[in-house]
Request: fold
Amino acid sequence: MADLAAWGDDFLLGTLVVLKVFVVALIMAVIFGLIGAAARLSRNRIVSGLAKVYVVTFRGAPEIIILLIFYFGIAVSLTALVQYFDPATKFVDIPPFWAGSTAIGLIVGAYMTETFRGAFLGIDHGQVESAYALGLSKFQTFFHVRVPQMWRLALPNFGNHMLSIMKDTALISVIGLEEITFVAQMATSVTRQPFTMYMTVALIYLAITTLITFGVAALEKYANRHLRGAR
Reply:
């Protein structure tokens, strides 16, 4: 316990990093998911096809491989671009935080694409037609009619995607981000107590994912409140 207490501040800072990655990746995943769902539902075959390639690619490849390719691929590409203008440049490094957050956002965004697409298809088309009949534009109908109902239908799977994002933050330690898994690795190398350190990481993740689970359950209850009143 003394060894664990000595690393307490590091685990606290690592937890804050995890939460930051989670928030940024979640925002990106929602954006990618909404854009992907809109593209998948598009009548344009090229747009729909590109969205399908995105979904198949990021859902089919191992997440850690995508993370590594994304991190090193962007670094190599930017290095080549900068060297074209400035040959003296040796290497352009990419911040692990942004590389990891974006990679996770893209990965989970592919899953959210299908979740949002299914939720949009689950909306009664009559309500959309009624919105148009009332004079609402496509933009107004999308944000005032379709999106609110889509969220209610998508919430159960959306909660699962939030949990996936949280758990995927542990992968970013492989590219050098100092989050709690990275801290556990460093602590293990010093204390030689891998069970204690990694069990601490597991308990931290369990606490956070439990809060997310209860939070999503509360959102589902709120979103379906009108259904309870109709019974």
In short: The mean pLDDT is 87. The radius of gyration is 22 Å.
